[in-house]
Amino acid sequence: MEKLASSSTATVVPTQHFLFQFHQHSLFFFPKTAFSTFHRNRTEPLSLPCCKSRHRRLEALSSKQDQLWVSEEELELELEEGEDSYLDGDDDDDDSSFLSLSDKPDRNMAMLDDYEGEELDFDYGPDHRSGYVALLGKPNVGKSTLANQMLGQKLSIVTDKPQTTRHRILCICSGTDYQMILYDTPGVLQKEMHLLDSMMMKNVRSAAVNADCVLVLVDARKTPEKIDGLLEEGIGDLKDKPPTLLILNKKDLVKPGELAKKLEWYEKFTEVDEVIPVSAKYGQGVEDVKDWILSKLPNGPAYYPKDIVSEHPERFFVAEIVREKIFMQYRNEIPYACQVNVVNYKARPNAKEYIQVEILVEKNTQKIILIGREGKALKLLATAARLDVEDFLQKKVYLEIEVKVRANWRQDEGLLNHYGYGGQIRVI
């Protein structure tokens, strides 16, 4: 059984912490086959379900005996009156529930840290192309889904909620004669509510000004509108504008005749080099986007080893996985008030990896909702997070989650810089 304990009070905000320790042999048991949905090394096409909860993924397994699960419906019955409004339920109309990746096999999911201290030769000949690509767009238009499709595996977290992406996620897409370095950026906001929002928009701009070409995504279902604001946010101050591609995403949800009219409108009323319709969810049109990028990238050597998919460390993606599960399980202001940090990560040769995670919220009421009555909401969160972390790392882990209150962290410049929101783009 899980160990439930109370720790000492917080140093910044006096409040009792809730410490939740979770490991494999505990309240919930899952068959071995549950760990086969994401692999670091695969040699076959991957169709990765990006589910709203791990419960739905496990329901697809043919053998469900010995499975114990606290469903979201059961959980809501246990919560105090009013708390259930903060838990996210299933939505049959969600068009981002599944991410079907393209037919190409996944690359080895190596990280830059794996090559520390090695002398590397990145000379791939005079015809090799390489460069930086910035993905811009309003929240929830499919930037992360497109980045994952182009990469061939899931790296950026994806949910049906806007503003899921907070950091610039660096995705390195390599082939025999090219290397595209994609920056998946936060959605461009019309109004900045917190200092965090302002710092995220600075990250969008810094990604765009360092790019060799820019991709601007719009939702094909929406009424066509000028994208001047998006371009101004990203590359408005540049004298020499980089090549710009307008991507009309979610074309699978629009009738062909309507799509043709919108294509014609964007080609006529926007100052871009080309307009391409795609369905990032199903991979339709993604190869056309890659071909366009390759035609714009300069000749040059690779900046990274060809099997590297990101320069972010593994602990960064562990925190992102936990944050993704928060977005999937909770609603209203709860996901946006959470900051996830990996505070301890220990590799143990003869034992499970030890990972200690803290979730910061701004109010004690948010902490109570995040934990849930008798800790059941946090158990559900920890279950989904631990399983996906193990899928990602391909290792068994001992996950420890602690919930703390840090008042107004989204307005604290020092904390935001410490959490990585104020960093500058690294251009090699």
UniProtKB/TrEMBL annotation:
A GO molecular function assigned to this protein is:
GTP binding
Is Repeat included in the keywords of this UniProt record? Answer: no
Q: Where is this region: G2?
A: 163-167
The segments labelled G5 in the record are 278-280
The alphabetized UniProt keywords are:
GTP-binding, Nucleotide-binding, RNA-binding
One Gene Ontology cellular component:
chloroplast nucleoid
Q: Does the keyword ATP-binding apply?
A: no
| Residue numbers spanned by region G3 | 184-187
Region (G4), start-end ranges: 249-252
Output compositional bias ranges, type Acidic residues.
Answer: 80-96
Listed InterPro entries:
G_ERA_dom (IPR030388), GTP-bd (IPR006073), GTPase_Era-like (IPR005662), KH_dom-like_a/b (IPR015946), KH_dom_type_2 (IPR004044), KH_sf_prok-type (IPR009019), P-loop_NTPase (IPR027417), Small_GTP-bd (IPR005225)
Listed GO biological process terms: ribosomal small subunit assembly
Report residue spans for region: Disordered: 80-102
**Where does the KH type-2 domain lie?**
330-407
PROSITE patterns the UniProt entry points to: G_ERA (PS51713), KH_TYPE_2 (PS50823)
Q: Where is the Era-type G domain?
A: 129-299
What are the subcellular locations of this protein? Plastid, Chloroplast stroma, Chloroplast nucleoid
User: What does the UniProt record say this protein does?
Assistant: Nuclear genome-encoded probable GTPase involved in ribosome biogenesis in chloroplasts. Plays a role in 16S rRNA maturation in plastids and may contribute to the assembly of the small (30S) ribosomal subunit.
This chain's protein is named Era-type G domain-containing protein
The record lists the organism as Glycine max (Soybean)
Instruction: State the gene name recorded for this protein.
Output: LOC100815820
